[in-house]
Amino acid sequence: MALPGMIDLYRHDCLHLLLARGFSLHDEAFVVGFTMGNDLRTNALHLAIFKFCSMLFYPRPYRFDCSHLPCFDAGVALGRKARLRNINQLDFRAHEHQPLRILREWIGIG
Length: 110
Fold this sequence. Notes:
By secondary structure, this protein is mostly helical. Helices cover about 55% and strands about 0% of the residues. The chain has helices at about 10-20, 25-40, 45-55, 70-80, 100-105. The chain is globular.
């Protein structure tokens, strides 16, 4: 089952760089939240489904708990505010030569 904001691993890792996030579970929650919040198709039901599944069905080392949800929600909020929408479909390879600062400004998260 794919929810809005579905993204491949390369683009997901690019978002870690753009959002200046590491790879802790809190950072993962933020990046996933940003991706979902940035997709124009995402609604409250999608967010609730993701939270439920990530807390109950993710394998143990990746499973979120209640402490991760504020980071997820903060990511959703930033994703909705970004100028560029549906970033999960962006061809990041076409922008690899650009400095992160310029990309962040273009996307609207600078």
